Amino acid sequence: MSAMTAEERQREIIKAARRTGAVDVTTLAAELGVAKETVRRDLRALEDHGLIRRTHGGAYPVESAGFETTLAFRATSHVPEKRRIALAAAELLGDAETVFVDEGFTPQLIAEALPRDRPLTVVTASLATAGVLAEVGNTTVLLLGGRVRPGTLATVDHWTTKMLAGFVIDLAFIGANGISRDHGLTTPDPAVSEVKAQAIRASRRTVFAGVHTKFGAVSFCRFADVSQLEAIVTSSQLPSSEAHRYAMQGPQVIRV
Asked: For labeling, which of 90, 107, 228, 247 is most exposed (least CB within 10 Å)?
């Protein structure tokens, strides 16, 4: 077999990272039959293009315009971290009576962690979240209508945003594919971006909850600035120095 070009190698690395959620230098070097330094060089190039984030000894994929993980995959990655974040986010409910819960696995976990001992109205575009809460006493679920996106099982398009525009919501729990200080909150799909932006417009308070790998990642469609958030909830795997830089833009940053 002839040696791969750098471009072919990098394509293989991206494929492996997206398939498994993370790659490490030693394994890649063995699989690709090249030196570790070559793999490190490939990882640096891929990071420069915003396709991966390097970690100590490896890398994980960044969700980009052309790539988005499914809800099923998200339900298997970083789960303990997501549960901690969801519990901490749910504690920010305060006296809110109406809540928007975004699509995605972490917001679904937030929905599950909301108190059951008081009346709540939950507005969501997520079929999964609506299903989880439909049987809960004291909770009224409003499922936004629209086109259902496969993979994420959430509704989008003008039906969804029009329905949202008619509400005044106390608190929105928002997810994103990426959050960065320069580019704010981003997601790959314009239709999803519209729903998130409308939810934030309709809500008095907005909380972003997401794992540490979202930070510094940038997708195609920007739907909010960091300064629009009341709080950011993530894990202690986000360095405190980085958390401080986000806090400088306005939100309270909670690391659990």
From this structure: 247
